[in-house]
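Today's session is about reading a structure prediction critically. Students often jump straight to the picture, but the first step is always the sequence itself: look for stretches that repeat, for charged clusters, for runs of hydrophobic residues. Only then move on to the predicted structure, which in these notes is written as discrete structure tokens rather than atom positions. Here is the chain we will use throughout the hour.
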Amino acid sequence: MDLFSMEENTQITRDKFPMIGKIIQRNDNSLSCERTLSLESDCYLDHHRFNNTPFLPGVIGLELFAELGRILFPNKTIQRYEDIHFLSGIRLKKDNPITIYTNIIASDNIADVVITSISKGFSVNKSNSKVHFTAKMVFGSRVRERQKIPVLKKLPMLTGEYIYQILPHGSSFQVLAELNSIENEMIAVGSFRKRQLFGWKVKELLTEPFILEAGFQAIGLMDFIINGRAGLPSKIKQITYFETDDKPYFIVGRENSKKRGFFDFSVLSKKGNVHVEVTDFQMVEINFGDTSSILEKLRSHRIRQMLHIPKKTWLEVIDKHLFLDKLSREPDFVRTFLRNDEFDELEGLNEKDKTERLLELFALKRSLRVVLRSRKMLNFKLEKDEIGNYYCSHKGKNVYLTMVEEIDYLLVLASRKRKDGLDFYDEREKIKEKIEAIRDKK
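Below is the predicted structure for this chain, in token form.
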């Protein structure tokens, strides 16, 4: 049967049009479809949760728009989207399915598209529908474009592993390999493996949603690090697609110097060929809970990255305020690192000295975990040499510990070479300057 002459209410072939569902109305220049989203049929939704509620990713909404356009105009190519609004998140409350309705109305090479849902208990024709996503879709030929190839720093600001300790995305949406740097512009590297989003084999997706998703996430991280805001996509002025045969690699973005809160980004190949360009990307701030601890962890991570410690050493950076907060909320956590003899040592101390000693012991033992390849801090016995410096003896070899306290941080370097610690201590003035720069930077 010819796909484009199918009768109304006929199920669309899922491997070609995975987001359509079924057509409920069709004319020459318009089309409406119905689609029920569920965790069973759309397993990727389980990997896109915020406050433990599954949300339809904005990039998948754009894919749905593109599939409508392809059905209505099978011989036309999407050149760009304009005036995109993510007005209300499409969420599966209590993990329950939701039915959405998508409409396209076209005139020449421009189409208006919208996703709505109907409150339970009302018919599709009722006027009380909720509008979720809207956009204009422009058809036309794609051109080729190149941009300057960005230069990566050898030591990235954040690796993928650390990024997804911050972002709540599950494995299907972990599309960033690293956030390399944020200086005059943001530079990130994507991780564009082939992923199976649905519960069946899909031949192709029309809008390369993972490429856009990588840009959304990278800009979100940039805004979070610079401005301390956690947000989701809200509005986009334009998304333009380009012709290229190369694989995507770089994400390059910047905040608009004239309009605060507006960002532009491009996704490029290793040769600088542009895949997609996004202008005036805005986010709406949402509540991810208390983000202060995440910001402090980021700052600690950046301190570690900036100091360029020697190979085969480990620098532990402990934020004093975070430690004190954890101690007040979970006083029993000290049993994870204190030995019996260390408990005895604390007995005769006043409250202030006891807290300072606990912080010191925690920092020293945390620094040993990586070098000794063990997380059992209770097994680490700290000793002092003849001049009062700490070390830990392990399997007949010593690990030397050097502690530097600057501003709100306690830094401990663990190394099997004593001279590494001495060099680190001699650099404390530079360390202080770098910490101040990170702490004071918005």
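Discussion point for the tutorial: The chain has nine helices and 20 strands.
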